[in-house]
């Protein structure tokens, strides 16, 4: 037997024989692993003890072999290895044990007294902060909360940095769920954690205040602001103060409480402390939220903080605040040659001008537009709209053609259509460049097709009512999936993937600690465990619902690709939209999507009788068109096995039953394979 395999299986006799014959107990295999490593992997305590007694060096393995034993929940091996490990980085072991939920190992490590804060020098804290911690944030928060909360009465002698780490996790837990732990860690004359701690996690500096602001945890943020020792000017990720982090959360800044906290933080923020946006578009989110939800005081505070640091993105704020010097800086800056300004910022800027029609800033905006048109950054159509004061219609022109507009923008595009139609040259270019069809799809997807303005959009003779929704652009993460989707409604998407998973054979267990006395303290301990488990279940359910909603939305967008508006309405069971579209004589009931499927096929796939009946009532409908698989409408009906739809098709007297698909099967063959004898009989007649 291979000696390393013998160590994995705990065969001490073979190892002893080999060592007596001169085998080096610290020799490594081709993968760089020693006998001790394999013994730890197998969980064999006697083998580990035997190897160490024969000279196996634990330190050469680094701290990883101890963490390896912890990850396998081998508590006895941890006790064997501990005396032989280096102390400089042993804090990682405790962090690993608690984050994985192995509190028995954690209790042993705490009992070693190597983590006592009162005996730690400042240089030790610096080493811990520099070394950083793991990123299993979701699971780690729940386990650190349990570990610290239920053992708090025992007065844990932990290194200060562990409490700081727990505080960071609590401040960014979802929906203020870490508020209880925050209060526990910061209460008293000598708080367990430092309210201004800075820890390097994943190469970014994190602080409690900036974490809570970034996550939008307003309750936690308010508690930190009230804490007498909190430094409100402290900076965290991206060298941002909490003020900027809070403004990235649209939900937070849209609430009165969030804006009040933002104003409080803005008073404590040093101007010009921010130099560059090293994370690209995050400042754009700040500007977007401030323009939409903020007041003029917040706008000016953001300008003071990042003036000249955000390139072209800051222009909407400069115009709103009528900052002439900033405008001059922008016009003379070569950064305008780089790219088109983010569309949402200009949409919000137009909204500002609508509410302030006499603003002097409008003249500055026109001058900027002229400059950008001259540099070929903007389309001349934008300047035409601005000069005609049609600020409704201009908004769509800032969006890519393959994007569905936000509902408010789509509504204003339709509202501004009548005014824009007086400029025939503008409308002609608008249609030729594809904006008309983009407006059509935006109205459909935004649910505003019931508007009277939608009928005027359908009346444009140059609009192609059968043009499919454009395909989404590929992202850096890979090309969009354009494979043929199943005709069975929208997908619910993947299940939520969590960053933490217990090791095989070691499921998480809520076990009682035997050292806790059997009295009221035990009852309180059990109650706290039950409450924590209930909270975790609620968080899990809410997280899964959010993930499913996101997947549904993404799946619907992907399913749109290649369909005409009529096919999309049929596939989504929207009978009223089908009626509206069919009122136009230019809608082609026989249009085929990217997979050559017709609106009728999509209606059959979702078993919508009313839409099927409505489409069959169109005189020139062709029931024998084939999709990419050679199937006609009756094939799809046979596949779903819906007897009523099959009867509707056969009674139309337009179905060619001799057609066979690409697999040389007939519609009746498909019905037979599904086992629906009633469908087979209906097709036979």
UniProtKB/TrEMBL annotation:
Residues 469-480 have a biased composition (Basic and acidic residues). Keywords: ANK repeat, Repeat. PANTHER family: ANKYRIN REPEAT AND PROTEIN KINASE DOMAIN-CONTAINING PROTEIN, ANKYRIN REPEAT-CONTAINING PROTEIN-RELATED. It comes from Penicillium salamii. Residues 481-492 have a biased composition (Polar residues). Residues 469-505 are annotated as: Disordered. Gene3D superfamilies: Ankyrin repeat-containing domain (1.25.40.20). The keyword Cytoplasm does not apply. This is Ankyrin repeat-containing domain-containing protein. The lineage of its organism: Eukaryota, Fungi, Dikarya, Ascomycota, Pezizomycotina. Signal peptide: none annotated.
């Amino acid at each position: 037997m291979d000696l390393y395999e013998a160590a994995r299986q705990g065969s001490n006799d073979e190892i002893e024989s080999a060592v007596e014959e001169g085998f080096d107990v610290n020799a490594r295999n081709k993968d760089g692993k020693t006998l001790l490593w394999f013994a730890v992997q197998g969980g064999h305590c006697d083998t580990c003890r035997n190897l160490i007694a024969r000279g196996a060096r634990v330190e050469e393995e680094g701290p990883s072999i101890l963490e390896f034993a912890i990850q396998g929940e081998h508590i006895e091996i941890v006790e064997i290895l501990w005396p032989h490990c280096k102390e400089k980085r042993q804090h990682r072991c405790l962090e690993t044990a608690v984050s994985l939920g192995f509190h028995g190992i954690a209790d042993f490590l705490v009992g070693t007294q190597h983590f006592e804060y009162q005996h730690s020098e400042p240089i030790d804290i610096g080493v811990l902060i520099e070394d950083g911690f793991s990123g299993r944030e979701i699971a780690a928060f729940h386990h650190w909360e349990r570990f610290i909360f239920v053992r708090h009465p025992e007065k844990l002698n932990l290194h200060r940095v562990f409490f700081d780490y727990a505080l960071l996790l609590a401040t960014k837990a979802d929906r203020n769920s870490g508020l209880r732990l925050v209060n526990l860690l910061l209460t008293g004359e000598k708080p367990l954690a430092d309210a201004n701690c800075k820890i390097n996690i994943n190469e970014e500096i994190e602080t409690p205040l900036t974490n809570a602001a970034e996550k939008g945890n307003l309750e936690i943020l308010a508690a930190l602001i009230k804490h007498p020792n909190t430094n409100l000017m402290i900076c965290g990720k991206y060298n941002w103060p909490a003020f900027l982090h809070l403004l990235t959360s649209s939900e937070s800044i849209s609430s009165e409480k969030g804006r009040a906290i933002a104003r409080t933080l803005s008073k404590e923020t040093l101007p010009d402390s921010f130099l560059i946006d090293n994370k690209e578009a995050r400042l754009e989110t700040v500007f977007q939220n401030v323009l939409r939800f903020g007041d003029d005081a917040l706008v000016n505070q953001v300008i003071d903080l990042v003036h000249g640091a955000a390139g072209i993105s800051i222009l909407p704020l400069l115009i709103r605040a009528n900052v002439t010097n900033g405008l001059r800086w922008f016009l003379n800056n070569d950064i305008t040659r780089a790219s088109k300004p983010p569309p949402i910022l200009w949409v919000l800027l137009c909204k500002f001008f609508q509410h302030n029609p006499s603003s002097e800033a409008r003249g500055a905006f026109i001058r900027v537009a002229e400059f950008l048109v001259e540099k070929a950054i903007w389309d001349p159509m934008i300047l035409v709209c601005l000069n005609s004061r049609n600020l409704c219609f201009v908004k769509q022109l800032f969006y890519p053609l393959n994007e569905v507009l936000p509902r408010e923008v789509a509504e204003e595009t339709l509202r501004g259509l009548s005014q824009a139609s007086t400029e025939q040259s503008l409308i002609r270019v608008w249609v030729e460049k594809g904006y008309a069809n983009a407006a059509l799809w935006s109205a459909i997807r935004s649910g505003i097709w019931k508007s009277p303005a939608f009928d005027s959009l359908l009346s444009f003779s140059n609009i192609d009512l059968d043009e499919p929704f454009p395909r989404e652009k590929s992202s850096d993460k890979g090309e969009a999936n354009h494979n043929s989707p199943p005709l069975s409604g929208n997908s619910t998407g993947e299940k939520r993937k969590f960053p933490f998973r217990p090791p095989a054979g070691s499921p998480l267990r809520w076990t009682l600690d035997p050292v806790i006395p059997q009295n009221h303290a035990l009852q309180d301990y059990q109650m706290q465990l039950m409450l924590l488990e209930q909270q975790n279940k609620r968080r899990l359910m809410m997280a899964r619902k959010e993930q499913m909603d996101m997947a549904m939305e993404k799946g619907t967008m992907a399913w749109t690709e290649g369909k005409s508006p009529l096919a999309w309405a049929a596939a989504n069971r929207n009978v009223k939209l089908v009626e509206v579209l069919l009122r136009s004589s230019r809608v082609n009931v026989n249009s085929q999507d990217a997979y050559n499927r017709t609106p009728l096929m999509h209606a059959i796939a979702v078993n919508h009788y009313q839409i099927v009946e409505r489409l069959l009532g169109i005189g020139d409908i062709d029931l024998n068109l084939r999709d990419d698989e050679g199937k006609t409408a009756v094939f799809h009906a046979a596949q779903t096995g819906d007897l009523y739809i099959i009867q509707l098709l056969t009674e139309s007297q337009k179905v060619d039953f001799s057609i066979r698909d690409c697999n040389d099967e007939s519609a009746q063959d498909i019905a037979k394979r599904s086992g629906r004898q009633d469908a087979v009989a209906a097709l036979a007649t």
